[in-house]
Design brief:
The structure holds two protein chains of two kinds. Chain A is mainly alpha-helical. The longest helix of chain A is centred in the middle third of the chain and has 24 residues, at about 45-70. Chain A is about 70% helix and about 0% strand. Chain B is built from 23 helices and two strands. In chain B, helix 3 runs parallel beside helix 14 (about 325-340), helix 5 runs antiparallel to helix 6 and helix 7 (about 145-160) runs parallel beside helix 22. The longest helix of chain B is centred in the N-terminal third of the chain and has 35 residues, at about 105-140.
């Protein structure tokens, strides 16, 4: 088997392993900036350092195992547009709910998510977002008394 | 007798009108999310957890528990009617249940599922009542080393029963443990991995992790390919069983219940395993194994009883040890903590009304579920006509409001997006999110007990192997790891989990 084939076959494992190695390295390196301490008196950095090391090791084994005996499954399609819209929707809500208030922030967030679906028309998306916003206001503000302004200070009334 | 007194206290608590109402809301919601594909009890409980903050502790736990076991009922309804298991544990039910529906016997199949589940739920509750108090007494004698070993055993056992690659599951646990270390160190107050963000001092919000990994990631998976669900449901008739059918399900229900009660206690996907195991047991003992897969009523009765019994008994490790057996139980830990109660052996003695009220409510909830699922079956089937393009923006709306309302904190909402994307790609790469969530919840516990044990033993790590209970637990953990790595067992494990697709 040619090397490129082996890599393609192991792609899933290589990527998964790399994620683990990256996270492990991140936690291990950053934890050295805290007091590590000794087994008797463990500092705040001790356990993250050890666990980070273990994660790097596991990541390497995942990659190695993939190269030796990869499953060969393809990753499949990734709905990039939908993923981006969902992330933007969630982040938008977090960033603006205090400033704009619940109603505008939620309306925009649900509108953006509605567009993440397939063949989402403008009118259905607006209807879905409007309906959901009303429903959530009823459930969370009227019934459950969540303390969030409906219209926030950024919008002059 | 003490037991009767306790049950009396439980009845009194569970039958208070407001608790009955929360129980009903919980099981109805659970049935709904069990029926709806694309949203499960884990994401639902995570989203609703923040709003339970203002509830009475016992009401909140009764409702959240109801969502969990209610979802087991709802999942079987869709499995039978449209061959689409709403929950993984209902996948086995679909094999024979949907076949029965195709033959026009949907009514008896649904009745079998509901009655089997009710019987199993009742027995599961009794098992809880009988075994939880003595186990809690044992657990009270546990010190830091025992707890450390126990958490290790729980984490290892959870991957033994998980699907997919063991190695990746192990790495996911470690990643979860690491994410659990974010925030202020309890011993020194040093903020770790917070990079000056004050909102992170209390740690990453576990609601965000759960909602992201189980809610948002699942949405992205569903958006991968265009799916149009066609609901073809004929009117379900004859929701009762003939005498002959009653006789043929009696033994499978009993066997399924026994198997489920035992496997439910195990960490990991005990209820999923129970459903699969009981199906193959029935197939083996049946005099007509050839009918399995072609609408055998035993093939519905046994797994349905097994998964519901297991759903009840999986509360045992949570209630007596504070150790969650699977992600839903990990969220229940969170529900306890929000209410200012540390789950563990002390709950029985410190909060008897809550403990017994919760247990009795599960039996009451099972009764509600039979009523909700048989006469009102039409309502749940109607829910399947809700198009996904309406459903998933709704999930996102609930997720962001839920994430925000816990601490009125924007970072909790950003974390949902982060863990949604991370979870989605990890799932794509063959890594299940469940071990990560367990690791995340148990991480602080593991670190705390480890550090305390080391201080007690003056830095001598042999403390874990010189104390008998701790040693036993560690040997069990090692055994579980070795057994799952044996080639023969591994093949079996793959076969068991492959059937569900």
């Amino acid at each position: 088997m040619t090397p490129t084939l082996a890599i393609r076959r192991a792609l899933k494992d290589i990527l998964a392993g790399s994620v683990f190695i990256a996270f492990g390295l991140f936690f291990a390196v950053v934890s050295t900036t805290y007091e590590v301490g000794s087994p008797l008196n463990m500092g705040p950095g001790y356990i993250p350092l050890v666990l980070g090391g273990i994660l790097v090791l596991l990541g390497i084994i995942v990659v190695a195992k993939g190269l030796v005996a990869g499953e060969g499954e393809t990753i499949g399609t990734v709905p990039w547009r939908s993923a981006a819209l969902v992330v933007v929707a969630v982040v938008f809500f977090g960033a603006t709910v205090r400033g704009l208030g619940l109603v505008p922030a939620l309306f925009v967030a649900t509108l953006l998510s509605a567009f993440a679906g397939h063949r989402a028309g403008v009118i259905p998306a607006v209807v879905i977002a409007g309906g959901l916003t009303m429903l959530c206001v009823l459930i969370f503000v009227v019934a459950l008394q969540l303390r969030v302004p409906l219209i926030g200070p950024w919008i002059p009334v | 007798m003490d037991l009767l007194g306790n049950l009396g206290l439980g009845l009194e608590t569970a039958l208070r009108p407001e608790n009955l109402l929360y129980c009903l809301i919980g099981v109805a919601l659970g049935t709904a999310v069990g029926v709806l594909p694309g949203i499960g009890p884990t994401a639902t409980i995570a989203m609703l957890l923040p709003i339970t903050f203002n509830f009475e502790p016992v009401s909140s736990l009764i409702m959240l528990a109801g969502i969990y076991y209610g979802a087991q009922y709802g999942g079987s309804t869709t499995a039978i009617l449209i061959n689409l298991p709403g929950e993984t544990s209902a996948a086995v039910t679909a094999i024979d249940g949907h076949e029965m529906a195709k033959q026009g016997r949907a009514g008896p199949a649904l009745a079998t599922a509901a009655l089997g589940s009710f019987f199993a739920g009742t027995v599961g509750t009794i098992v809880l009542v009988l075994f939880a108090p003595p186990l809690a007494r044992v657990a009270l004698s546990f010190g830091a080393p025992e707890y450390f070993s126990l958490v290790v055993l729980g984490l290892i056992a959870s991957i033994a029963l998980a699907r997919g690659s063991l190695l990746k599951a192990l790495a996911m646990i470690v990643l979860g443990l690491l994410l659990g270390t974010v925030g202020q160190d309890t011993y020194t107050g040093t903020p770790r991995f917070t990079f000056g963000v004050r909102e992170l001092f209390g740690g990453i919000n576990f609601v965000s992790v759960a909602v992201g990994m189980f809610g948002v990631a699942e949405i992205l998976r569903n958006l991968e390919d265009e799916q149009t669900r066609t609901v073809m449901v004929k009117k379900v008739q004859n929701l009762w069983l003939t005498m002959k059918e009653f006789r043929s399900i009696a033994a499978p229900v009993l066997r399924g219940t026994a198997l489920g009660s035992a496997l439910g206690i195990l960490p990991g996907g005990g209820h999923i395993l129970a459903a699969f195991a009981s199906y193959s047991v029935e197939k083996r003992v049946s005099r007509h194994p050839e009918t399995f897969g072609h609408g055998a009523i035993e093939g519905v009765a046994a797994p349905e009883s097994a998964n519901n019994a297991a759903a009840q008994t999986s509360f045992i490790p949570l209630l007596v040890l504070g150790l969650p057996a699977h992600p839903v139980m990990a969220l229940m830990v969170g529900a306890f903590i929000i209410q200012g109660i540390t789950p563990g052996p002390n709950v029985i003695t410190d909060e008897p009304a809550l403990f017994w009220g919760l247990i009795v409510s599960m039996w009451v909830g099972n009764l509600f579920l039979v009523l909700l699922n048989l006469p009102l079956i039409g309502i749940w089937v109607k829910m399947l006509t809700i198009p996904y393009r309406v459903l998933f923006p709704a999930i996102i709306a609930f997720a962001v409001i839920g994430g925000f309302s816990l601490g009125l904190n924007a970072y909790d909402v950003y974390a949902i997006a982060f863990f949604g994307i991370l979870g989605y790609f990890l799932i794509k790469l063959g890594c299940e999110p469940a071990p990560l969530l367990l690791g995340f919840v148990l991480g602080p516990l593991l670190e705390d007990h480890l550090r305390r044990a080391m201080i007690i033993s003056r830095g001598d790590p042999s403390v874990f192997v010189t104390r008998p209970i701790s040693l036993t637990l560690l040997i069990l953990a090692l055994g579980a790891l070795v057994i799952t790595m044996l080639p023969a067992i591994r093949q079996k494990r793959e076969v068991v989990f492959k059937e569900e697709v």
